[in-house]
Design brief:
The protein is an alpha+beta fold. The protein has one domain: Translation Initiation Factor IF3 (2-Layer Sandwich). Helices cover about 35% and strands about 35% of the residues. The protein is built from 3 helices and 4 strands, in the order ββααββα. Strand 3 and strand 4 form a beta hairpin. The radius of gyration is 24 Å and the shape is elongated.
Length: about 130
């Protein structure tokens, strides 16, 4: 599964757009980790307990999003974003979302490639004296 934040994948062509896919997790903090965080806040530095908690939350949300996309038959997810929100004082939601797509090897649909295709489709042979109809 290819998962990217971009709107396209270099060297791949989007042949089908399936659906919005998402994965989320809601995590609560642990009183022991909160106490350690208070001490770190006093002396300064990274709050490693929360860094680990958020990293695990991101991975779980991504895994759930990929699972949903796989169930739809996708082999890629584009335009991936993350969002967070507080549910209650000690619980936060982390949401990962994107667009499930089917990708194939080939040139990506860049604006330049699209313009070249359109111009070749609309090009007409010149008409005039001596031109065959």
């Amino acid at each position: 599964m290819i998962v990217v934040t971009a709107n396209r994948v270099s060297g791949e062509r989007i042949v089908r757009t399936l659906s919005l896919v998402r994965g989320n997790t809601i995590r609560t903090r642990h009183i022991g980790k909160d106490i350690m965080a208070v001490f770190r806040n006093i002396v300064g530095g990274e709050v490693a307990e929360y860094t680990k908690l958020l990293g695990e939350s991101r991975e779980q949300a991504l895994d759930r999003m990929v699972e949903e996309a796989t169930g739809l038959g996708a082999n890629g997810i584009i335009s991936v974003r993350f969002s967070t929100s507080m549910i209650i004082g000690a619980a936060d939601e982390l949401l990962a979302y994107g667009t499930a797509v089917v990708l194939e090897d080939g040139p990506s649909d860049t604006p330049q490639a699209t313009r070249r295709q359109e111009s070749s489709l609309t090009h007409e042979a010149p008409r005039g004296p001596g031109a065959q109809a």
